[in-house]
């Protein structure tokens, strides 16, 4: 689950992580009211969407008068903001964040993320603040500092020293402030079961203070039961409605850009299925893991969600029955054909628990557009052929 910048900064404030003052607004008039309450003579009007790159997309503007705050808020609210993270379809801006101006002497990058290879959190930092970190990693990887933190000992002084030395911070007072900042950010990450915290840019002011000028946070959905305060921050309008619906049925669904719908049990097998489809010359339209407790209802719902995508030209059902029984999947396929207009070829590979019974169920059903496959390679090849109209 992701949250907006203004929400991330509310959490930062609870932990003493310095941020500029700001207020969220849903209308231009609310933006004007916020600017008056903040005071000063310069403000930043920021689009609030769950994506980075807002500035380059025209979603972050500087206002030098109250009239300009209203004008810019009016321009940004209601716009479809396209960034490198939204995709070409963009995201509708429904909120703006009005923030006080800041004295920017330098811009840095700072984040806390999970390093899956090391199975530990790492603090990533760079002197190239304000830039796309992926571009920095590609062109100047030596400018990214990575500090691995063993959660059994937590953030220690030597982690902080490694960080400030890597960033080239030599002033003792500034070193102390940066170490304190990073320590608090790490505590936020651990306390809130975050998957990622990113501040880009983290600014250094003329007084040598470090302030989070931006804030991006994502959380482990599986841990939200421990954090009802985070669940309350959920903005459903920012989430893919199909992914949201799938989660309510215990399905893990992610929309992709291809033409072959995938229904698989187990994340590893799902990834392997998509790789095999690509190898065979096709492109997957989605990731869909029905999990180990799939039944006829959830399988039918999976078909319904997959077929909402108009680009889907074939569906590949690839089930290896361990916990989940193949006959349940077969009954789910039959149920789907009754509840949903399954108008594309469905290639089915069922193996494992109760596979013979499943094959008999599908055979007796005599459904014209359901095509049996013997194994993964055969199923992927048939799915690619079906999507091309060659089957």
UniProtKB/TrEMBL annotation:
Residues where ATP binds: 46, 53-55, 99, 102, 107
Short name of any one Pfam family annotated for the protein: Ligase_CoA
Record's keyword terms, sorted: ATP-binding, Ligase, Magnesium, Metal-binding, Nucleotide-binding, Tricarboxylic acid cycle
Positions of region (Disordered): 224-243
Listed pathway(s): Carbohydrate metabolism; tricarboxylic acid cycle; succinate from succinyl-CoA (ligase route): step 1/1
Catalytic activity: succinate + ATP + CoA = succinyl-CoA + ADP + phosphate; GTP + succinate + CoA = succinyl-CoA + GDP + phosphate
EC numbers on record: 6.2.1.5
GO cellular component: cytosol; succinate-CoA ligase complex
Co-factor note (free text): Binds 1 Mg(2+) ion per subunit.
Gene Ontology BP terms: succinyl-CoA metabolic process; tricarboxylic acid cycle
UniProt cross-references to SUPFAM superfamilies, sorted A to Z: Glutathione synthetase ATP-binding domain-like (SSF56059), Succinyl-CoA synthetase domains (SSF52210)
Signal sequence segment: none
Binding site for Mg(2+): 200, 214
Molecular functions per Gene Ontology: ATP binding; magnesium ion binding; succinate-CoA ligase (ADP-forming) activity; succinate-CoA ligase (GDP-forming) activity
Annotated residues for binding of substrate: 265, 322-324
Cofactor: Mg(2+)
Residue span(s) of domain ATP-grasp: 9-230
Biased composition regions of type Basic and acidic residues, renumbered to the chain: 224-236
Protein family: Belongs to the succinate/malate CoA ligase beta subunit family.
Subunit structure: Heterotetramer of two alpha and two beta subunits.
Its biological purpose: Succinyl-CoA synthetase functions in the citric acid cycle (TCA), coupling the hydrolysis of succinyl-CoA to the synthesis of either ATP or GTP and thus represents the only step of substrate-level phosphorylation in the TCA. The beta subunit provides nucleotide specificity of the enzyme and binds the substrate succinate, while the binding sites for coenzyme A and phosphate are found in the alpha subunit.
Protein name: Succinate--CoA ligase [ADP-forming] subunit beta
Organism encoding this protein: Sulfurimonas autotrophica (strain ATCC BAA-671 / DSM 16294 / JCM 11897 / OK10)
Primary gene name: sucC
